[in-house]
């Protein structure tokens, strides 16, 4: 269980500069366009051309700064679910090598000696996916919350399809557990490992708490500063600073753009959230969390696969829709 803190900040753009597109000569560019058949998606190298649905720039700088940098954008003239799917596919295309390495570091041996636990986990996740998909299609056109859940899962579908070498089509849904989902589960597994009775070992995700936050108010309330430190597993330290600019709409039938259309965050390969968590959003909010462990085991009895979307999904939904700290908590 994690504790989130949301802060309104005025210096949004200054902090977003961390994730600005690096110099052209040091970047790898890619963009996605629709094909001649309905929903077919094609990915091209280079800067975006005519009809680009989504595009990105990636700088591999880990050897020098310890960080890679990814800047992704999508085109508001396309339907939201098309934007989301294409964005996930472009991210997988640009960062595939790092995603493979990060998965191998974190999850390639996760089920070794844990077959019964992993079977229970797979069943839980599959039930949750079905519940979420059903709710998305019931409320996508009327409820901003479930529209954002739907787009988060479409982004995951695009990332997963490219990672697993499937034919890219924007009509594809995320219906079955793949490596892409595991890459986003770290925060959820900190509770699910206990709930589903995993026997702790060196491949477990929940071996330690992970975060510290510093918040400081300057004299005369001139400004507020916040800093974050992540001290997670050493094998998790392939890092990407990401900036997402997705002009999605409040619902699939709305013309209003979501308040959190632009998000900057430290993240990891294949993750569609920060996980640290440390966000600057176009809503004017800064969102961060510090570890707050659950010491009341009876609360885990309330965990049900058909109660709510997973933590990683709710976090991004809240960050995209909330314009106040209290709203963020309500959405989450």
Task: Name the features.
single chain; 332 residues; alpha+beta; Penicillin V Acylase, Chain A; two-stranded antiparallel sheet
In short:
Pfam families: Phospholip_B. The protein is α+β, with helices and mostly antiparallel strands and 332 residues long.
- Indicate the CATH architecture: 4-Layer Sandwich
Q: Any idea of the CATH topology?
A: Penicillin V Acylase, Chain A
* β-sheet strand percentage: 15-25%
Q: What overall form do the CA principal axes indicate?
A: globular
Quaternary state of this entry equals single chain
What structural class should be given to the helix and strand makeup? alpha+beta
Radius of gyration: 19 Å
Adjacency order of strands in the biggest sheet: 1-11-10-9-8-5-4-2-3
Number of strands: 11
Task: Describe the protein.
- With 332 residues, the chain is α+β, with helices and mostly antiparallel strands.
- The protein has a single domain, classed as Penicillin V Acylase, Chain A.
- 34% of the residues lie in helices and 21% in strands.
- It contains nine helices and eleven strands.
- The chain has a nine-stranded mixed beta sheet with strand order 1-11-10-9-8-5-4-2-3. Strands 6-7 form a two-stranded antiparallel sheet.
- It starts with a strand and ends with a helix.
Helix and strand arrangement:
Layout: E1 2-8, H1 12-16, E2 28-34, E3 41-45, E4 54-59, H2 62-65, E5 68-74, H3 80-106, H4 115-139, H5 144-163, H6 179-183, H7 186-195, E6 211-217, E7 224-230, E8 240-245, E9 262-267, E10 278-281, E11 285-291, H8 311-321, H9 325-331
Parallel strand pairs: 5-8
Antiparallel strand pairs: 1-11, 2-3, 2-4, 4-5, 6-7, 8-9, 9-10, 10-11
């Amino acid at each position: 269980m994690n504790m989130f803190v949301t802060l309104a900040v005025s210096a949004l753009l200054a902090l977003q500069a961390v994730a600005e597109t690096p110099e052209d000569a040091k970047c790898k560019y890619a963009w996605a366009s629709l094909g001649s058949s309905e929903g077919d998606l094609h990915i091209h190298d280079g800067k975006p051309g005519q009809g680009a649905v989504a595009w990105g720039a990636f700088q591999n700088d880990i050897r020098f700064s310890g960080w890679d940098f990814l800047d992704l954008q999508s085109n508001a003239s396309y339907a939201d679910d098309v934007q989301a799917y294409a964005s996930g596919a472009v991210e997988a295309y640009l960062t595939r090598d790092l995603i493979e390495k990060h998965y191998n570091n974190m999850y390639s041996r996760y089920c070794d000696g844990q077959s019964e636990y992993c079977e229970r986990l797979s069943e839980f996740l599959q039930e949750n996916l079905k519940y979420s998909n059903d709710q998305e299609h019931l409320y996508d056109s009327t409820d901003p919350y479930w529209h954002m859940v739907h787009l988060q899962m479409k982004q995951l579908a695009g990332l997963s399809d490219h990672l697993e070498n499937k034919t890219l089509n924007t009509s594809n849904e995320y219906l079955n557990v793949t490596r892409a989902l595991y890459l986003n589960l770290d925060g959820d597994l900190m509770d699910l490992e206990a709930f589903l009775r995993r026997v702790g070992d060196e491949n477990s995700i929940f071996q330690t708490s992970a975060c510290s936050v510093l918040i400081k108010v300057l004299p005369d309330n001139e400004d507020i500063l916040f800093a974050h430190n992540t001290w997670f597993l050493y094998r998790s330290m392939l890092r990407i600073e990401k900036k997402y600019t997705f002009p999605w709409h409040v619902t699939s039938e709305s013309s209003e753009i979501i308040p959190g259309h632009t998000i900057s965050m430290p993240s990891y390969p294949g993750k569609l959230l920060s996980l640290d968590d440390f966000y600057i959003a176009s809503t004017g909010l800064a969102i961060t969390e510090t570890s707050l462990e659950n010491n009341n085991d009876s609360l885990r009895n309330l965990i049900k696969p058909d109660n709510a979307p997973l933590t990683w999904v709710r976090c991004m939904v809240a960050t995209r829709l909330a314009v106040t700290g209290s709203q963020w908590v309500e959405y989450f």
